TrEMBL record:
Localization terms from the record: Nucleus
Leader peptide range in chain numbering: none
Main location, first listed in the record: nucleus
PANTHER family cross-referenced by the UniProt entry: METHYLTRANSFERASE N6AMT1
Annotated keywords: Methyltransferase, Nucleus, S-adenosyl-L-methionine, Transferase
UniProt xrefs under InterPro entries: Euk-Arch_PrmC-MTase, PrmC-related, SAM-dependent_MTases_sf
Entry protein name: S-adenosyl-L-methionine-dependent methyltransferase
GO process annotations (BP): methylation
NCBIfam families: hemK_rel_arch (TIGR00537)
Length: 214
C-alpha cells in the first residue's frame, strides 16, 4: 500500500486555482497501484501526465516506479498547476518532475515520439457548452464540451505516436464520455488494444479507467 501523496503544502484558497484531488483522482491512483508490479517490470524511462493539476498522480507514480533514472514529465495549460505539481513532488521528496506549461502534448511531439512508457490523463470530462473548453484557469480542469469528449477526442489520435512499444496509457472517463465507444475507436481506428480495467460510482457519476497499449 503506497500512501497517498502529502498535499498539506497546498492551501485551501489554492484550490480556487488548481483542481483539488477528488474521487476521480483516487480512482486513477488505485488503477496505478493495482498495476504496481507491471509498471515496475517495464522499468519506465519516461512517464507523462497530461493535465497534472495538483501533481498528486505523478507523485504517486514516481513512488511506484521507485529509485531509477526515470523522467516524469507533466503538462498543464494552467501555469499555477504546473508550479503546484512541482511543489507537490518536492513535498514528497520527488525531484524528477518536470512540469511543462502547454496544452495536451503540444511541444512534446515529435521529440518524444514512441518514447513514453507510462501515460496518464484525468481529462476535463464534464459535459459543458463548447464555449467553455480551452480556458487557461481552473475551468480547464473540468470543461469537456459536447459529451465531455472534446479535449479527450483531441488527444486520441496522438496516443499511438506517444506510447513506446511497451507503453501503457491510463485514461479516466465518466459514463457520459461513452467509454465503450472510446475503446472501440482506439481498436478500430488506431489499431490499439484498449479495455476498461476499473469502474466506480462517485455520487451520481460513474467513473471508469481505460487502459490502452500497442
Amino acid at each position: 500500500m503506497i500512501p497517498t501523496p502529502d498535499l498539506s503544502h497546498i492551501k485551501k484558497q489554492d484550490y480556487d486555482r488548481v483542481y483539488e484531488p477528488a474521487e476521480d483522482t483516487f480512482l486513477l491512483l488505485d488503477a496505478l497501484e493495482e498495476d504496481e508490479k507491471l509498471i515496475q517490470s517495464l522499468k519506465p524511462r519516461i512517464c507523462l501526465e497530461i493535465g497534472s493539476g495538483s501533481g498528486c498522480v505523478t507523485t504517486l507514480l514516481a513512488k511506484i516506479v521507485g529509485d531509477s533514472n526515470a523522467l516524469f514529465l507533466t503538462t498543464d495549460i494552467n501555469s499555477f498547476a504546473c508550479e503546484t505539481t512541482r511543489q507537490t513532488g518536492l513535498q514528497n521528496k520527488i525531484t524528477r518532475i518536470e512540469p511543462i506549461n502547454t496544452s495536451l502534448v503540444n511541444g512534446i511531439l515529435p521529440r518524444l515520439k514512441n518514447r513514453v512508457d507510462i501515460l496518464c490523463f484525468n481529462p476535463p470530462y464534464a459535459v459543458t457548452p463548447h464555449e467553455e473548453v480551452g480556458s487557461f484557469g481552473i475551468e480547464a480542469s473540468w470543461a469537456g464540451g459536447i459529451d465531455g469528449r472534446e479535449v479527450i477526442d483531441e488527444l486520441l489520435p496522438y496516443v499511438k505516436d506517444i506510447l513506446s512499444p511497451q507503453g501503457l496509457f491510463y485514461l479516466l472517463l465518466i459514463e457520459e464520455n461513452k467509454p465503450k465507444e472510446i475503446v472501440e475507436i482506439m481498436k478500430n481506428q488506431y489499431g490499439m488494444n484498449a479495455m476498461i480495467i476499473m469502474q466506480r460510482r462517485a455520487g451520481r457519476e460513474k467513473q471508469f479507467i481505460v487502459k490502452i497499449h500497442h
